[in-house]
Amino acid sequence: FIYINFIYKYEIIMDIKDLKYYCKLIETKSYSSTADYFNVTQPTISAMLKRLEKELQAKLIFKTTRSPMHITHVGLVTYQHAKVLLLQVNKMNIDIERAKQHNFRLGYSELAGRLWLPQVIKELNRGKLLAHIETYQENSERLRKRLLQGYFDAIVYSKLETEQSFGIKENILGEHQFKFLVPTTHPLSTENKIDIYQIADTPLIMRHHNYLSNVALQQIFNKTGFQPKRKLFIDNIEAMLELVESQMGIGFIMDANIKLSSKTKLIPLIEKQEIKAYTCLGIRKDFLPNTEQQKYLNILMHPLQN
């Protein structure tokens, strides 16, 4: 049950299961679909609605001649808050389960992991903690979302200087720039800096839209009004390196821990087009680590203390 106290008004006690039923009913607009989803009878859903309306002292849903289900304004407000409450309950359940466990879940992005993870592996091993750490690789956007949902205890990720990560305590591990990855045989390889318009006739090898380098490119496109004539999307950095080495185009990448061959080089954008990125260690602001999880956090923070 959820207890809600409205100062000077009245008190409400709601069943979590009723809120789940109610939200699904609003979303499907169907008693039968809602009942089927939860494997209950339609009268169960009808009884839930009566309980909520009695508790709230307001009509939430009624039928009209034009529509089998009309949601009142109070009904919409109830749905909106119920969704938030259910998310909080789910987050609470995840946190409680994590508090019982003695492992540590660390998420990291591809480039940020390359830069930072090797630095702490030895420390984790020295602290005899490697056996109980679980690591997962995701893109930075998904990492932050899953951290806030409670699926990770900490994340190592990259972010643009213009981005804000609400609800996350961030510790900056390093500052980087996005640069063009150019074959040494390409005419642009002799440049000290590249204007985005100089790549107009060259295929641009890009990461997919969820990756930070793509987000950075889109910001540059929006700022300059430039759009490449030819784009090639790839899944990982190794594929980009191979394609650039094969002279299939030029890439766009953060100047992180990338091993370049003699066939490629990194060249920055001109100053007014450049964009910075940061590698961060992120921890949820309201995360309460248990004793074992705190040991991991102490070691993960170690590079920042030196």
What does this structure look like?
The chain has 306 residues and is an alpha/beta fold. Helix content is 40%, strand content 24%. Strands 5, 6, 7, 8, 9, 10, 11, 12 and 13 form a nine-stranded mixed beta sheet that branches. It has a two-stranded antiparallel ribbon with strand order 1-2. Strands 3-4 form a two-stranded antiparallel sheet. Strand 3 (61-62) and strand 4 form a beta hairpin. Helix 1 (16-28) packs across helix 2 (31-38) and helix 1 (16-28) crosses helix 4 (73-100). The protein is globular, with a radius of gyration of 26 Å. The two termini are 48 Å apart. The relative contact order is 0.14.
List the uncertain runs: none
User: What sort of overall outline do the alpha carbons produce when their principal axes are compared?
Assistant: globular
The CA-CA distance between the termini, in Å, is 48 Å
Counting DSSP E segments of at least 2 residues, the number of strands comes to 13
Structural Rg:
26 Å
Specify the structural class.
Answer: alpha/beta
Alpha plus pi helix count: 9
Order of helices and strands: EEHHHEEHEHEHEEEHEHEEEH
Task: Round the mean pLDDT to the nearest integer and report it.
Answer: 87
Largest sheet: 9 strands, mixed
Strand content: 15-25%
Helix content: 40-55%
Give a concise summary:
Helices cover 40% and strands 24% of the residues. The protein contains nine helices and 13 strands.
Strand and helix map with partners:
Layout (H helix, E strand, L loop, with lengths): L1 E4 L5 E4 L1 H13 L2 H8 L3 H15 L4 E2 L7 E2 L1 H28 L3 E5 L1 H17 L6 E5 L2 H10 L4 E7 L7 E16 L20 E4 L4 H13 L6 E4 L2 H9 L4 E5 L9 E5 L7 E9 L6 H10 L6
Parallel strand pairs: 5-6, 5-7, 9-10, 9-11
Antiparallel strand pairs: 1-2, 3-4, 7-13, 8-11, 8-12, 8-13
Helix pairs in contact: 1-2, 1-3, 1-4, 2-3
